Fold this sequence. Notes:
The protein is mainly alpha-helical and 169 residues long. The chain contains eight helices and two strands. It is elongated and about 55 Å long. It starts with a helix and ends in an 11-residue tail after the last strand.
Amino acid sequence: MGFFDRISSGLHRSRDKFKEQMNILLDRGPDVDEEFWETLEEALILSDFGAAAADAIVEELRDEATRKALPDAYAVLDLLAEKIADQFIETDGSIFDDEAVVLFVGVNGSGKTTTVGKIAAEAHSNDRKVLLGSADTFRAAAIEQLEEWARRADVEIVSRERGSDPASV
């Protein structure tokens, strides 16, 4: 299974959560009131869109719904896919330049360490030089987990003991 196939497979849970949240939203009826907008934003956040993206999508939908005088929630949700697609950037190849520094930030349990490990392995297999740094890792065994990913990917890692100053890495 290829790298992107594994990522696609891993997104299955988020996709299912999104479908579940949209069904809940549709079950509440056609009214486009404040509760609709709050529920939509919550559904997007719970489906791993992130707060900033969810807020941007909802605000764009609100504006367009008002401008076009959309009749109900179903018409608003018809525009949702378009607004979600607008949040993505098209690339003409690798998402990284010849030299890139990538910082992963997110809440606990969101899959940062695993994603970093998989991207490191893929980059290394494409003959890119990879160096992992484990700054600001306070979760128990996070450093050890990242060290294991580095070992599997055969890439270098810079780390310090848990609780160290992140700037020391």
